[in-house]
Every structure is written in C-alpha cells, then in structure tokens.
Amino acid sequence: MIDAVTGAHIWADRFERDLTDVFALQDEVTVAVVSAIQPKLLQTEIAVAVRRRPENLTAYYLFLRAMQQFYLTTREGVAEGVRLAHRALELDPRSALVAALAGVNHMQNILYGYAADPQFDRKEAVRLLGVAMNLDDGDPDTLAWTCLISAFMVGDCESAIEMADRAVALNPNSFSAWNGRGWVYRVAGLPEEAIRSLECAIRVSPIDPRLHLTFVGMGFAFIELGRFDEAIVAGKKARRQNPSYSGTYRCLASAFAHLGRDAEAREAAARLLELDPAFTISAWIARGGQSNAKLLTEGLRKAGLPE
Q1: Choosing a second label site near 235 at 20 to 30 A (CA), which of 73, 102, 219, 246?
Q2: CA 210 → CA 58, 270, 297, distances in Å?
Q3: pLDDT score at 68
Q4: Model's pTM, two decimal places?
C-alpha cells in the first residue's frame, strides 16, 4: 500500500496458506489485512495531522492530534488531549466520537491520579458521556469509549456491558470495541470474559499503540483469577509497549507480591511511585472501578504500597 500523494510506503505483507477451504482462507486473509491496515492508516493520518500548521487544523485533525496524546497516557498527554478534544468539539459540536474522546480524557485524569479537581473531571466525563450518546448511540467506537465512562465514572456496569456488547456486535473488527468490552467486564467482576475480549482486541489489531492498556487489563483479570504467572507475562508485555504507564506497575507489583517474589514486587512498587508519587491504595480505590479487584488490591498491600 502506497500513499498516492507522497509515494510513501505504508504497508505490505504476503500470505501463504494451504488451499484446502478457499472460503475460510478468504475470511482469514480479510481479517489479517483489516487488522494490519486499519491501525497503520490511523497512525499515518495522525502523523500528517501532527505536521500540519496549527492555523490549518480542522476538527478532524484536532481529533487525530488528541488521539496521539491519548496514546501516551502521561500527565502532559492527557492534559493536551483534553484541550485538543474540546477544541475539536467546539468546531464540530455534532461529533459523538469527539465528545466521547473528550470524556475519556477527563476519565483518564482521574484514573491516573492527574486531576487537580477530580470532582470537575468526573462531572465532565459523565456530561460528555450523555452528549455523545444523545448525538449517536449507534457508533461502535463511540460506544467503546462511553462504556468505559459508564463503568469507571458512573459505576453502572449493567449499562456499560450493554454498550460494550453492542459495540462489538456493530463492528467485530474494532480494537476499541473489544478493548473497551474487556475492561468493562473486568470492572464488572467477570475476568474470564474480560480476558477473552482483550485477546480478541489483540487479534484484530496486533500493532495497535494502545496495546499496553490491553495487556494491563489482561494482567488485572489474571490476578483476580489467581493466575499470577500469566499476569506477570502480561505486565511485562505492557512494559515493553509503554514503560511509562503506571497501571503496568500496579499489575506487576501485585502479581509478584502474591508469588512471594518480594524484591521484584518492591521494585515494581517503587517504579509506580516514581510515576504516581501521590499514589495510595485508598485514593486509587476512590478513583473508581476497583470494587471487584480484591486480589489486585491485596497484592498491592503485600507489595508495601502506602494505604
């Protein structure tokens, strides 16, 4: 695949299979091509948006730039994501997807411990959830984000599950839909289904820049199932994807502590505190979405993190 404007090489691959069932082969190639091309095209569009002069930005390019910041999961990235998403929404107030992204950024401010005013961010996240759903409750990517706000900020897992299930039904090839569904089921206390959904997310977008979030979600679910070795594998994969994501070290600290690997647990806990210096277990629980994370919380205590 070549960019017709610039001549840049975007993507190429080859497929070699035994020709036993031509229709199964066709389906397999289709899924493989879609899962490879979609995230690559999005990243190419984001790169173009970042290079554009600020005075030429449209709502869509602002949305793409907000997505780039969303991927970083840093304090500065979330703050810039909020700013860009709100600017995009001012230019296109009828965009449900932009409203949902703005809401998720406010949610991230709380979940990652970045919020200067958590009450404001929570209210904004919930307000934007309503805005997005009123504008378009049938878009799978919008549903993939609003279901997260419903689960984490509202605590309404029943509605969140309904949104997540509808998202994957509308687009079973959407990474956002499967990833959102996985996190929602994890929050709802259904770790087996969470893992199944997150595995689907990886299959449909194996090079997605949000994979660190997916692997951490799997790690949390593995911990609740007592599968601590698998949680460590998932946590290490997340760390390779994004070593600055604090959730990775909550996963690793808890899993190592449960296995009695105290030195490694303390090392992960120390890294967590570097990224989130104000972290306490009680504050993290208050951020939302942790009512069914009993073993995860127990492991954080065993790792010596402050109460």
Answers
A1: 102
A2: 24, 24, 24
A3: 86
A4: 0.82
